[in-house]
Design a protein that fits this description.
This protein is mostly helical. The chain is built from 17 helices and no strands.
C-alpha cells in the first residue's frame, strides 16, 4: 500500500461524523440557545451603561454600530469556513477540515487587525460623522479603540465556533460561549459601576468586559483544540495552499459584501423612518427587540441547514442535501410563524412593558403584526439562505438580498416618503422586500444549480 492510500484510509478511520448522524433540530437548538444567551448579555450591558447617562448610551451605541461593520468581515470568513469544513467532514477528510480551520483563523485575525488600524488612525473623524457632542464622541472613540484591541480573540471564537458547528458539534461552542457570557456579565457589573471591589470605569469598563471575556473564550477554545479534544483534529503544518485560500476568499467575499449591504440598507431604512419623528423611531426599536427571539430561531435553523447541506455535498449525496434543505425550511417556517403569531397576539401588553406612550405602542403593534405575517417568508430566507451558503453559494444570497432590500424595501419606502404617505405605509415596504426574497430563495434552491458551487 502506498503512502497516499495509507493517508486516505487514516482519514476515513478518523472521520469524526457523518451527515446521517445529524438532525436539523439537533443542530439548531444549541445555536438558538446561544443566541438567546448573547441577547441576555446585551440587555445587561444596556442596563449597566444606561445608568451612566445619555452620553454614555450614545457613545456605546455609536461604537457598537461601527464595530458591527468589522464583525461583518469576521462573519464572512466564518461563512467560508463553515462551507469548506462541512464539505470536508462530509467527505471523510477531517485533516482537511482542520487545515481549513487553521487557515481561516489566521486569515480572520489578519483581516480583523488590518481593519482595526483604520479605526485607530481615523477614529475621531469616523465617530465625528455621527454628530455626537464632545463628551459622547470622546467616550465613543475610547470604547471603540479598546474593543478593537481584542479583535484577535473574537476572530478565533468566530472561526473555531463556525468550524465546530460545520463538523456537527454544536454543544462545545455553546458551552464555551456560556462561560464567555457568564464572565462578561460579571465584568460588566464589576467594571462599569464598580462592584465586587473593582473600580468603576464607566464606558471603558464595558469595553474591557467585552474584550476580556471573549479573549478568555478564545484561549479556552485553543486549549481544548490543542489537547485534541475537538471533533476537528489538530492540523498539519502544511495547512496553507493557494487554492484553499482562493476558495475561502471566493466564498467569503460575497458574504462580507452581503453583510455590509444589509447593514447599510438597514441604516437607510431607519433614516427614512426617522423623518417621521421620535415615535416611529421608538416603535421600530421596540419592535425589533421584541422580535429578536424569532430572529434567533431563524438563525439557529440557518446554521443547521448550512451544516447538513455542506456535509451531504461533501459526501457526494446531493439528493439528501436537497432534502435536508427543504426539511430545514419547513421546520423554520413553522417555528417562526408560531412565535410570530404569539408575539402579534400579545403585542399590545408586551409593547406596554417596554414603553409608556400610547402612540409608540400603537405603531409598535402595527409593526409587529406586519412582521407576524412575514414570518413564513423570513423563515424561507433564513433556512434556504443558510443552505445555499453551506453549499458554498454565497453570490446568490448577495444578489437576492440586494434585490429585496434595495430595489423593493428602500425604493418603495422612499416613494412613500416622497408622497408623504403615513409611516404605517412605509412599514409595509417590508412586505415587498421579504416577498421578493422568499420567492427568489425558493427558486434558487429549487433550481439545484448551487450543488456545483464549489466544483
Amino acid at each position: 500500500m502506498n503512502s497516499i492510500d495509507k493517508n486516505a484510509n487514516e482519514e476515513l478511520v478518523d472521520s469524526p461524523s457523518s451527515p446521517e448522524t445529524l438532525s436539523v433540530w439537533g443542530l439548531a437548538w444549541p445555536s438558538i440557545l446561544n443566541n438567546i444567551l448573547f441577547a441576555f448579555v446585551s440587555i445587561v450591558a444596556l442596563k449597566a451603561v444606561g445608568s451612566l447617562g445619555t452620553e454614555a448610551m450614545a457613545a456605546v451605541g455609536t461604537g457598537q454600530r461601527i464595530f458591527f461593520f468589522l464583525q461583518a468581515v469576521l462573519m464572512a470568513t466564518a461563512t467560508g469556513t463553515h462551507a469548506l469544513v462541512a464539505r470536508a467532514i462530509g467527505g471523510n477528510k477531517p485533516i482537511e477540515a482542520a487545515e481549513v480551520t487553521l487557515l481561516s483563523t489566521l486569515v480572520a485575525i489578519i483581516f480583523g487587525v488590518s481593519s482595526t488600524l483604520i479605526f485607530f488612525i481615523a477614529g475621531d473623524e469616523i465617530i465625528g460623522a455621527f454628530g455626537l457632542d464632545e463628551l459622547s464622541q470622546k467616550l465613543a472613540v475610547e470604547y471603540l479603540q479598546i474593543s478593537l484591541s481584542f479583535v484577535p480573540g473574537l476572530a478565533i471564537l468566530f472561526i473555531v465556533g463556525a468550524a465546530l458547528r460545520a463538523a456537527g458539534d454544536v454543544i462545545t461552542p455553546l458551552i464555551i460561549n456560556l462561560i464567555v457570557n457568564v464572565i462578561n456579565v460579571f465584568l460588566l457589573i464589576a467594571l462599569v459601576n464598580g462592584q465586587f471591589g473593582f473600580e468603576a470605569m464607566g464606558v471603558v469598563g464595558a469595553a474591557y468586559a467585552w474584550g476580556i471575556s471573549f479573549s478568555i473564550g478564545a484561549v479556552l477554545a485553543l486549549c481544548i483544540w490543542f489537547s485534541n479534544r475537538f471533533i476537528i483534529p489538530m492540523p498539519t503544518l502544511k495547512f496553507y495552499s493557494f487554492s484553499r485560500l482562493k476558495t475561502l476568499i471566493e466564498i467569503s467575499v460575497p458574504a462580507g459584501i452581503e453583510s455590509v449591504v444589509f447593514n447599510f440598507g438597514l441604516l437607510a431604512y431607519f433614516w427614512i423612518i426617522s423623518v417621521y419623528g421620535n415615535e416611529p423611531i421608538a416603535a421600530y426599536n421596540v419592535a425589533i427587540n421584541i422580535l429578536m427571539i424569532s430572529f434567533m430561531i431563524g438563525h439557529g435553523f440557518s446554521i443547521a441547514g448550512a451544516t447538513l447541506t455542506g456535509q451531504y455535498l461533501g459526501a457526494e449525496n446531493p439528493k439528501e442535501a436537497r432534502r435536508s434543505g427543504w426539511k430545514s425550511a419547513r421546520l423554520t417556517v413553522f417555528s417562526m410563524t408560531i412565535v410570530g403569531l404569539v408575539i402579534a397576539i400579545f403585542s399590545r401588553p408586551v409593547s406596554g412593558f417596554f414603553i409608556d406612550d400610547s402612540e409608540v405602542i400603537r405603531l409598535t403593534v402595527v409593526f409587529l403584526w406586519i412582521f407576524a405575517l412575514l414570518q413564513p417568508l423570513m423563515g424561507i430566507e433564513f433556512s434556504l439562505g443558510g443552505a445555499l451558503r453551506g453549499a458554498g453559494d454565497t453570490k446568490s444570497p448577495l444578489i437576492i438580498t440586494m434585490i429585496g432590500l434595495i430595489f423593493f424595501r428602500l425604493v418603495l419606502a422612499s416613494i412613500f416618503l416622497l408622497l408623504k404617505m403615513p409611516v404605517e405605509i412605509v412599514f409595509s415596504a417590508l412586505i415587498a422586500d421579504y416577498l421578493a426574497k422568499g420567492i427568489l430563495f425558493t427558486m434558487r434552491f429549487k433550481s439545484g444549480r448551487w450543488v456545483k458551487a464549489l466544483n
